[in-house]
Specification:
The complex is a heterodimer of chains A (about 575) and B (about 120). Chain A has 15 helices and eight strands. With about 575 residues, chain A is of the alpha/beta class. Chain B contains two helices and eight strands. Classes of the chains: A alpha/beta (about 575), B mainly beta (about 120). Chain A: It holds the Pfam family Strabismus.
Chain lengths: ~575, ~120
């Protein structure tokens, strides 16, 4: 089973097969491996893809790897986003650059040959049919082949990325060592300047190593359906850089057996500097660019209309989707299907009671529509009192809830007065001393009934089992919380992440978008994040340009008079 | 048809008030409001809400002011020759309650509404 703690946001998990369990192969099978590849492949074609940190860990290695990676095996690009397979894990999308994305990029890059891969306007292609299989997460056997296959491609991608990184890392060292090994006797001695350069090379490589790890190789937060374009570009850049350096090295130094060792060392140092600058560029592109808020996203839950606004910077649609989901779990109140519909007593069947008689002409062609329209019109005109019922029903419900809540609060307050913390100085019979769990159990009985009734009335009882209430009570007792603090969790519906894991096991989200998901956010972009029972509709608005002007106020100019209105009699 | 118009105009009036002695005080029997140090927008009697003049806000029934013909809403322009249009509230009070004066002669402005009935052109 998938690690329960992994919160993986898998976009299009299935088709893209992006999801790759960090440590285990068994990730929900993504049957759509070919599809994912298609998707992946499609990505690079898009010139305007501006995915800055193509995190698409998951996606990347999945699709691209198998195909393109094989094709471009020779291309060892520096894996800027080399994500190590470990990243597959689950969530972190952005920063970790699991190699996969790089590899995918590579593969996608080489997708010129894959002309037959269709357009990928929406990421959803194929998702729908697979989303059903999402529910069969438990059927690992069925997914085994797929996941294994996908993991294979992912691993491949990661391996390639790692290879590129290794190549880039070892190149300066090779530059330094080859002259020593091949024509040592002819080399001019090079004293202190060389030593200084050696030290600088060593430290720069160390920093490069740490920086690359921090930027690209941490565990991803989520699996993205598509490759990150920026990562792909960075990989290309690194690859070109390394290749051109090798070219020059081979021609100028190896062939001619250059004697000036100092020059060789400086050449190697310049490569390390160039790599550091590319890393700097990567930091800016992948990390910094999205920090300045540029857009306001409005996320509305389709089931009950709960909405929030978020400020984001320049992001691609898929990364914005992950951002929204990260915030969804702690901002939106938990989805409670029981609270959605009006009680049946309120909604009356208005359509009934009408019979349609057609007089005169009998053309049966448009009779049905005409009839239904007539019925609807008549029903609308009929005097309807359902709003009355709704109003009174709501008032009654509210009164009931308040009454139960009052009982609950009183019961909890009284229960808490029965226990107190043992002070150090007090001497008590060991039999009387309880640990938090026992204390919780002791006082739970007096409030259990009131709690149960209250939860029933507010339709929250599926979210709180007795065990969870006891655990929370124990927690509150341990930390000396007041009854009000204990009740905070029950009196209002909290965000989804507060409840038991199974409640928010929904790691599978589907991203539905009319534009390619690696496109950047623009004013007016709308995309939908779907789950089985509800969806989040996200719309984008650009933050307006502010014109700030200044006005100087002299502190001495603040003067006041009394507003007087006296009346004096004379 | 008859058209009625209300014409508003102000006219000045001279009022002579003989102060009444009550114990140790000489009282005039009315109250004033306004002044350049007051808020003119709160004045209910003035037509121009930036007018910071002194207005009569109350007239005691049967007092010397009422006997002399002073009415609520009158604007006091002069008291015994002293100008009252640009004084503070306290200065106005002092000018009216001088202990050595038994008679004060006020120049007041009163707004009046007169109905003018005009025959319409048609009829």
């Amino acid at each position: 089973k998938i690690e329960p703690l992994k919160v993986t946001v898998d976009f299009l998990k299935v088709p893209l097969g992006l999801k790759k369990p960090p440590l285990k192969e068994a990730l929900a099978a993504l049957p759509g491996k070919p599809k994912s590849q298609i998707l992946e492949r499609h990505k690079p074609r898009r010139s305007d893809a501006m995915d800055n940190e193509s995190q698409y860990s998951g996606y990347s290695y999945k699709s691209g790897h198998s195909r393109s990676s094989r094709k471009h095996r020779d291309r060892r690009e520096r894996h800027r986003s080399k994500s190590r397979d470990g990243t597959r894990g689950d969530k972190s999308v952005t920063i970790q650059a699991p190699g996969e994305p790089l590899l995918d990029n590579e593969s996608t890059r080489g997708d010129e040959r894959d002309d037959n891969w269709g357009e990928t306007t929406t990421v959803v292609t194929g998702t729908s049919e697979h989303s059903i299989s999402h529910d069969d997460l438990t059927r690992i056997t069925k997914d085994m082949e797929d996941s294994a296959h996908l993991d294979c491609s992912r691993h491949l991608g990661v391996a390639l990325g790692a290879a590129l990184a290794l190549l880039a890392f070892l190149t300066p060292l090779a530059f330094l060592l080859l002259p020593q090994l091949l024509w040592r006797e002819e080399l001019e001695p090079c004293g202190t300047p060389c030593e200084g350069l050696f030290i600088s090379v060593a430290f720069k490589l160390l920093i490069l190593l740490l920086g690359s790890w921090a930027l690209f190789f941490r565990r991803p937060k989520a699996f993205f359906p598509r490759v990150f374009v920026f990562r792909a570009l960075l990989m290309v850049l690194v690859f070109l850089l390394v290749v051109s350096y090798w070219l020059f090295y081979g021609v100028r130094i190896l062939d001619s057996r250059d004697r000036n060792y100092r020059g060789v060392v400086q050449f190697a140092v310049s490569l390390v500097d160039a790599l550091l600058f590319v890393h700097y560029l990567a930091v800016v592109l992948l990390e910094l660019r999205q920090l300045q808020p540029q857009f306001t996203l409005k996320a509305v839950r389709s089931a009950d209309g709960a909405s929030r606004f978020y400020n984001v910077g320049h992001l691609s649609i898929q990364r914005a989707a992950v951002w929204i989901l990260e915030n969804y779990y702690h901002d939106f109140p938990v989805y409670n299907p029981a609270l959605l519909n009006l009680p049946k007593s309120v909604l009356s069947k208005k359509m009934s009671g009408f019979k349609v008689y057609s007089l005169g002409e009998e053309n049966s062609t448009n009779n049905s529509t005409g009839q239904s329209r007539a019925v609807i019109a008549a029903a609308a005109r009929r005097r309807d009192n359902s709003h009355n019922e709704f109003y009174y029903e709501e008032a009654e419900h509210e009164r009931r809830v308040r009454k139960r809540r009052a009982r609950l609060v009183v019961a909890v307050e009284e229960a808490f007065t029965h226990i107190k913390r043992l002070q150090e100085e007090e001497q008590k019979n060991p039999r009387e001393i309880m640990d938090p769990r026992e204390a919780a159990q002791a006082i739970f009985a007096s409030m259990a009934r009131a709690m149960q009734k209250y939860l029933r009335t507010t339709k929250q009882q599926p979210y709180h089992t007795m065990e969870s209430i006891l655990q929370h009570l124990e927690f509150c007792i341990t930390h000396d919380m007041t009854p009000k603090a204990f009740l905070e969790r029950y009196l209002a519906a909290g965000p989804t992440i507060q409840y038991h894991k199974e409640r928010w096991l929904a790691k599978q989200w589907t991203l539905v978008s009319e534009e390619p998901v690696t496109n950047g956010l623009k004013d007016g972009v709308v995309f939908v994040l779907k789950r089985q029972d509800f969806s989040l509709v996200v719309s984008t608005k650009k933050i307006p340009f502010f014109k700030l002007s200044e006005e100087f106020v002299d502190p001495k100019s603040h003067k006041f008079i009394m507003r007087l209105q006296s009346e004096t009699s004379v | 048809t008859m058209l009625s118009n209300l014409i508003s105009f102000s006219f000045q009036q001279r009022i002579e008030i003989h102060k009444l002695r009550e114990g140790d005080n000489l009282i005039l029997g009315f109250s004033i409001g306004g002044g350049i140090d007051q808020d003119p927008t709160q004045n209910p009697f003035s037509e121009d809400k930036t007018d910071k003049g002194i207005y009569v806000t109350r007239v005691t029934v049967g007092g010397p002011a009422e006997v002399a013909g002073l009415q609520v809403g009158d604007k006091i322009m002069q008291v015994n020759g002293w100008d009252m249009t640009m004084v503070t509230h306290d200065q106005a009070r002092k000018r009216l309650t001088k202990r050595n004066e038994e008679v004060v002669r006020l120049l007041v402005t009163r707004q009046s509404l007169q109905k003018a009935v005009q025959q319409s052109m048609m009829s």
